[in-house]
From TrEMBL:
It holds the Pfam family DUF87. Residues 26-215 form the AAA+ ATPase domain. InterPro entries: AAA+_ATPase, ATPase_Atu1862_pred, HerA-like, HerA_central, P-loop_NTPase. It comes from Kaistia soli DSM 19436. This is AAA+ ATPase domain-containing protein. Gene3D superfamilies: P-loop containing nucleotide triphosphate hydrolases (3.40.50.300).
């Protein structure tokens, strides 16, 4: 299915139509680059409008420019001022019901935009296999969500967003996700994200580093990079299997909708006389609007090492200062925390909710039961892993299980649950959990991720995997001297769900 982007520009173009093959685009992805004012957003709008009748679309919109698509093309506008758990559920519904949507992030700061976009894209990526319908995923200002270097945002937010963008561009094709990413600065965009695109539309660019990188992506010589400075607004150099086999210059066509904030236009200044303008500006300010002037205080000098040691010596031990006064022993308190974690995980869809909403749910339940909410996040993650195993209370009270728990505490967070599930199977004489069970219990649909965690456990010596003549897998735990029964690694789990490869 071909759509018209515009006309071929230049003396040899002859006004020919510049076409884009949507089906080929679904398999090869697209990168759009252009400095501010080059017509990049206009190009995205043209592409979205022309392809809207033929394919589902999801737009990650950091500035609210594309919400106007809703009136003309029926896109659902999603306000990002929701909990991350809500965004996960909504993203799953978007894929399930094949709804075109615009995720409007304009009301959030940069870090929350990254968290919201990362959560939404990951939920789309992790959708059930039966919902892997083709979707054009358009990400404007992609350098915000896949930065080349760490900025002023938290490392957690950067990893979440960058991981989601990498999944979209590197592994999204098999799941029906076709990434269209647009950026003002190629130098600010992560290279592993940009390199996965096979189609390119390069607009006006002035900085040398961006011109050289654009020329490298298009396979042009360095001396040809200067041509990007000569492009007019709305002109782009196109190349790729969905566009053209040889570089051509495209003048983008007109659009039916418009952004809420258009291009600034010159407006005549007010005609009032200078004296009248002075009176307007310097009119008395109401007293209640005047901010009190706070005296400037000099910054304190940095403490010396002697001062720091003396301060630490005066402080009370941390354990004594933070010990909650609830009348419970540490063992009783941990048992109650574990019971609450199990209740959280018993909620429908809990395994696939993000860590942040699960933690908030946990804290609320603690307050309801009048337990002090002093549990560190790392300890909460371990409690969640214990709750995800679903073992009964009889097994949980045995000495063997307590030994399993102590060994699991020393493992990395991502490997703990797999170890616990295998140990529980060995203690009960059950078959080794399948890839699907390991994946779905840990809140992912990726069987490959589950196998990767098993390889980590085997490499570290915590388990030894044995495969019999039927291809069934058993796991030995050398530190505990126990072994699971042999089980089919490819068997479905629960209601027949099978994790994706």
């Amino acid at each position: 299915m071909n759509i018209e982007l515009g006309k071929v520009a230049g003396p040899h173009g002859g006004g020919a139509e510049a076409m884009l093959d949507v089906e080929e685009l679904l398999a090869t992805r697209l990168l759009v680059q252009g400095n501010s004012g080059s017509g990049k957003s206009h190009l995205l709008r043209r592409l979205i409008e022309q392809s809207a009748p033929y394919v589902q679309q999801v737009i990650i919109d950091p500035e609210g420019d594309f919400v106007s698509l809703a009136d003309r093309f029926g896109h659902v506008v999603l306000d990002a001022e929701r909990g991350l758990g809500e965004l996960e559920v909504i993203a799953t519904r978007v894929r399930q019901h094949r709804v075109s949507a615009v995720l409007n992030l304009e009301s959030l700061d940069v870090e929350m935009q990254m968290r919201a976009a990362g959560t939404f894209l990951n939920a789309m990526f992790d959708a059930d296999r039966e919902h892997w319908f083709p979707v054009l995923v358009v990400v404007d200002e992609a350098q915000l969500f896949a930065p080349a270097v760490a900025g002023e945002v938290s490392e957690e937010a950067r990893k979440l967003s960058l991981g989601a963008m990498t999944n979209l561009m590197c592994r999204g094709r098999k799941r029906g996700l076709a990434g269209i990413i647009a950026t003002q600065r190629l130098a600010k965009l992560a290279k592993n994200v940009a390199a996965e695109a096979s189609n390119f539309l390069m607009g006006r660019t002035f900085l040398d580093i961006d011109m050289v990188r654009a020329a490298d992506l298009l396979g042009l010589e360095r001396r040809q990079a200067e041509t990007f400075r000569d492009l007019s607004r709305g002109q782009f150099v196109a190349l790729g299997p969905a566009l053209t086999r040889r570089p051509i210059t495209v003048s983008v066509g007109t659009v039916e909708t418009a952004p809420r904030a258009g291009t600034p236009k010159l407006t005549p200044l007010p005609a009032e006389a200078a004296a009248a303008q002075r009176e307007l500006v310097l009119a008395p300010v109401p007293v209640d609007l005047v901010r009190p002037v706070e005296p400037r205080v000099a910054a304190p000098s940095a403490p010396t090492m002697h001062d720091l040691l003396a301060s630490l010596a005066r402080e009370a031990p941390l354990e004594a200062a933070e010990a909650p006064d609830d009348g419970l022993t540490p063992g009783e308190r941990e048992a109650q925390f574990l019971a609450i974690a199990r209740a959280v995980m018993a909620e429908p869809g809990a395994p696939f909710r993000g860590e942040a909403p699960l933690y908030q749910d946990f804290l609320v339940r603690c307050r309801i039961q009048r337990l002090p909410a002093t549990l560190p996040l790392a300890q909460f993650r371990f409690l969640l892993n214990l709750a995800r195993t679903g073992i009964d209370s009889a097994l949980a009270e045995t000495d063997d299980w307590q030994r399993v728990v102590e060994l699991a505490r020393a493992l990395p967070d991502e490997a703990q649950l797999s170890f616990l599930l295998i140990a529980a199977a060995a203690l009960t004489g059950s078959p080794c959990p399948s890839d699907a069970e390991l994946a779905l219990r840990s809140g992912t649909h990726s069987a490959g991720r589950a196998r990767s965690r098993l390889r980590h456990l085997e490499k570290s010596g915590h388990i030894v995997l044995r495969v019999d003549i039927r291809g069934h897998r058993a796991a030995v735990l050398p530190d505990l001297g126990i072994e699971t029964a042999a089980g089919d690694a490819r068997a479905p789990y629960g209601d027949g769900s099978v994790a994706a490869e």
